Amino acid sequence: MAKLGIQKRGTGKAIRITGQKPFLPSHPSNPGSPNKPKFRDGGRTNTKRENRLEELGRVDAERARTSRGKRNLKDEKRRIVNELKK
């Protein structure tokens, strides 16, 4: 039978539970600290320019199926190129 600990009078609730600690689920990537993910040691993050170049490559590779889609891609490419020029 578990210990109930210090009881708060009239409420039936314990102020401090003695005995076993309450279960705290831990994040799988950081077993030492619960609910707080720890980033794995890895490579560096991309710079803003690298992200723009990556986006430009995606737009270049994408094919438009309609005339409106062609216009949208052209506008998007122009926006990315202008951001790279800044």
Global morphology: elongated
State the end-to-end CA separation: 70 Å
Oligomer: single chain
Spatially, the strands of the biggest sheet line up as 1-2
User: Helix and strand string, N-terminal first?
Assistant: EEHH
Give the biggest sheet.
2 strands, antiparallel
> Strand pairing plus helix content: what structural class?
mainly alpha
Number of helices in the DSSP assignment? 2
Low-confidence segments, given as residue ranges, are: none
Overall pLDDT, averaged? 77
Helix content: 25-40%
> Beta fraction of the residues?
5-15%
Which value, in Å, is the CA radius of gyration? 28 Å
Q: Give a count of the beta strands, DSSP E runs of length 2 or more.
A: 2
